[in-house]
Structure formats: structure tokens, C-alpha cells
Amino acid sequence: MSSAATPPACPIGVFDSGVGGLSVLRHIRAALPAADLLYVADSGHAPYGDKSEAFIEARTLAISGFLVDRGARALVVACNTATAAAIARLRQRYALPIVGLEPAVKPAAAATRAGLIGVLATSGTLESAKFADLVQRFGSQARVIVQPCPGLVERIEAGDLDGPLTRGLLARFVAPLLEQGVDTLVLGCTHYPFLMPLLRELAGPRVELIESGAAVARQLTRLLAEADASASARAGTERFFSSGEPARLAALLPQLWGAAVTVEPL
Ligand code: DGL
User: Could you tell which of 77, 123, 154, 190 is best to mutate to test the pocket of ligand 1, judged by most ligand atoms within 8 Å of the CB?
Assistant: First the structure.
């Protein structure tokens, strides 16, 4: 007699330079409650923001290889910097559904009333050809003012979401944008949604803050046509890997993921 048990579904592989991709993973978990998720934090090599495209491409291919070897049926590059540097190469290598992140310039251009949007991101993202192309496509609808945020990812990697150093840095990055009159701010790095409460405090209630996590989860769901799996009664699982010190990521997970979880070495 054949077993009635549901065969284990292939997991979805998600990665970032560190903990930033967890801000995307939470949207994926909400959109696909039955999906098994593998998450890699490349903390041993974070931050990516000031590294060369060749280095980021090599890390992207290495991590994706690790995830594909573990059966990943789809990949989410939960990092704007890695998407800009390497997603084209990744798509050449794997014929899987692959979803990347890009700063939400399109929705911001549609949302702004002042015709002025600010983009907070890493230098790597802002200097990429992919970002230049994005601004070219939507720049006629709104003026785009960019602000690189060196040092911010490191604060978030340290679990400092609200301390004086993080506040000081963020205030310094946001002030010139507000002075120029932006009414819409794009969080163009997956680490930054963890600073949403602080950003809201600094920017005030009238500035719209836009992140890409929910849109990415929707796009992934569409690609996977997951309606059936989502309807399954079984709750999905998560496994976390780090190329840095697993204990450090494990210590941050209650704060950033909402649960204490074991972290395996990459
Ligand atoms: N979370 C990343 C991003 O979305 C990378 C940040 C970094 O490592 O510099 O760009």
C-alpha cells in the first residue's frame, strides 16, 4: 500500500551577505507558510556593499551552489548588492526560478507627491549598472536622490537597531534627503527594514518608507504557483547557515527572526 504521507517538498534557498535577508525571509514565510526554507547568511564575508563585483559574484555562485546541492528548487538573492552584481550570471548558470532584489524605485516614483524620492542603499548597489538602468527607466516620473550608507550594515549585523551609533549614522544619512524635500524614501538594502521604527521616528509621519520584501515574496509565489503548497496543513521548516560564527547569528535570531533557532556552519 502506498503511504499517504506528503513527500518532502524541495526547499527554497534564500541568502544575503548577513542578517539583512531575514527581512525578506519573514515576508516569504508569511506568503508561503508550508514552504521549507534554507537561509544562508554570508556573515564571514559581510558587508558586500564595498566589495568588488567579481568578489560578490564569486560568493553568490558559491552560496547558490551550496543551496542547489541541498535541493533548492528556487533561489532568492535577498540582497540588493548581490542582485546588482551577480543575478545575470546566476540566471545563466541555473534554470531555476530566481528572484532578486532591487531598490523599489518604481513604486516610489508612483507614490511620491513631491516628485522627489530618496534611495538609501550600499555604494555597490548605487554605483551598479543595474541601478543606473532602473533610474533611467523611472527617473522621468520623479527625481531620484541617492544616499550611500557606509557603516549601517555593520551596526545591524551587531544587533544594534536603536543605539546611539546607529541613530547618529542614520540621522546623518537621512537629514540631507529630508532637507531637499523628499516625501518618499526607498530602503534599498535588505538590512534597513530592521531600522524601520528608527527611520519612521527620524523621517516623521509624512514621509513614505518603501521596502521590497513583500513584493519579492509575491513574485516568488507567482513563480512557484504555490497555491497548493500554501494550502497544505503542514507548517514549513527553516534551516539557517552562516559562513561566519554560527553562534553570533544564533544570538541575533530571536531579535531579528522572532525565534531562537539553531545555526549550522556553512
Ligand atoms: N543586505 C544587502 C543589500 O541588500 C547587503 C548589505 C551589505 O552587505 O553591504 O544590499
Answer: 190
